[in-house]
Every structure is written in structure tokens, then in C-alpha cells.
Amino acid sequence: MDTLNIDIVSAMFKDIHPLFPVTFCALDNNGFSVYGYPNLSTAPFCCAMRNHPTLHHLCRVSDHRAVSVSQNQNDPYMYTCHAGLTEIIVPVRKSNLIIGYLKCGQFAVESNLELINTTANNYESVYQLSELSLTNTVDTIRIFSEELAMGAKKLLAIMAENAATHNKALSNAYSLPYEINSYIESHVGENVSIETIAKHFNISHSMLYNICKKINNCSVKEYIITRKLERAKTHLINGYSVENTAECVGIDDTNYFIRLFKSKVGITPKQFQLAYEIK
Asked: How does DSSP assign 209-278, residue by residue?
């Protein structure tokens, strides 16, 4: 099956970012993020959101809905997420088949500033988010005019067309970064390791590290942990026990999973789950 040419996508993101400095990302045909620029990390405001179970769930709902809506249209879909931020997503099609998506966002248009501030204050009050300093991160959100946002929408459409055109004769060197991220995403529920990934793609550990560092801005181990914890959050929100959640993300030692989760998220898996249930 055809996939996005990550080198082409990366080059486009890097060229456009100085003119429109927001978060860009490429998604596979299932809607999973496989490449981000400057990286796959979210902006401070969005990061604070996703560290709370209920708000993390709302973010995921917004993400999935955007993918679902954009599947049925050719033009970029520009929308406002649950927190008031603006995002744009467009499918990349080849022979009428969706091979991935391009997305940019985590910015605000001027007309939504009041909505964003009101939403942040309401979330802090309702969900007791003082420890996340949600309102303190509002000032980090990039603000653009309506005209510039519309320009970005048109630009993303051109980028998607370019990504589809240059996807022909995709070489292994071009597809490898994408395939590695897709492989990790598909095997999050297993005890996936650096050794198994390198062996699967018949590459050295150092080459694997360099590829992962280039596309994810982190080591292979760090990226695997990030994807496991994101999957774990979803399972916890859906009512899985801590033990079952650990097993579902390929971690046999529940105590290790609890320590790892707390070190990265700031609270234990049970506290994360309870916070969502109390919403």
C-alpha cells in the first residue's frame, strides 16, 4: 500500500514553518501521527490539556472527528477544537485512495481569543486544574488573523497535492521513517524493543536511532514509551483496570508501569482514571 513520502513532507514543513510557525504533522491513513514538525510534541497549552484525563479525551474526540470529516471531502477542513484553537487537516489522495493526512494547528485566530480564555478558566474551575497552570499557558498560543488562517488552509491543500504527486516510485529510503513509526504504533501492545525494530527493518541500532531522532526529536526508547502511555491513557479512560492497561501496552510488570506512568504524566494511572470518572 502507498504511504506518504516523509522526506518530501518534512521538506515542505520546514520550508513553510518560518512563514507560518505552527505545529505541522503527517498522519497515516488510519489517522495516527507519524511525523511532526518541529516535532510530535504538543504546544504547552495543548500539553497541559492532554495531561488531564477528561480533557485528553476531549482532544482525542476532536482529533478523530476531524479525520472522519476530512475523509469525505477533498478540500482542507478547518475547524475549532473543544478548547477554541484552530486546526486544519486535509487528506492526501492517490488514485482516489487516502494514503495519509497533513495537518497544522494549535494556533488561535484573533476572533477566538475570548473563547479560549473563557474555556481555559472554565476548565480550571470545573476540573481543578490549578496544578496544570492551564491559563498560564494561554499566552504561549500563537495568534493569527482570519486572513492568514485562510491562507494556511489554501497552502495545506497545495502541500497535500504536492505530497500525492511526489509519492510515485516511493523508495525504501523515503518510506523507512514512516514505516518505522507505523510499525511502532502497530506493535504498541507488545514488548517492542530497539532490537526487534532494527531486526525487522534490517538496519543497525545507530541508523534506527538517527532516523527516530530526525523525525520524532527523541530516542527510539522515548518514542516507544510516549506511544505506550498515550495508548494507556485511552484504555484507562475506557475503564480498563491498571493491570489490564499495562498488559495491553506490552508491559508485564504492573508496578513498573505505575512508576513509569507517574514519572511521565505526574500522577498514577489510578489517579488519572479517577480524575476522569469524577468529571
From this structure: HHHHHHHHSS-HHHHHHHHHHHHHHHHHHTT--HHHHHHHTT---HHHHHHHHHHHHSS-HHHHHHHHHT
121, 126, 239, 272 from 63: Cα distances, Å: 22, 23, 20, 20
How many angstroms separate the CA atoms of 113 and 119, rounded? 10
Tens-digit pLDDT profile for residues 213-250: 887 888 999 999 988 998 898 888 888 999 999 999 99
Cβ atoms 54, 279 nearer than 8 A: yes
Q: How far apart are CA 74 and CA 117, in angstroms?
A: 33
CA 258, 261, 266, 267 torsion-angle sign: negative
Query: Mapped to the 3 state alphabet, what secondary structure does 92-107 carry?
Result: EEECCEEEEEEEEEEE
Question: What are residue 229's DSSP bridge partners?
Answer: none
Integer Cα distance of 265 and 233 in angstroms: 10
Query: In b/e form, how buried is each residue of 214-236, taking b as 16+ CB within 10 angstroms?
Result: ebbebebeebbbbbbbbbbbbbb
Please report the pLDDT score of residue 172 as a whole number: 46
Number of neighbouring beta carbons within 10 Å of residue 244: 13
| Residues paired with 24 in a beta bridge | 37, 104
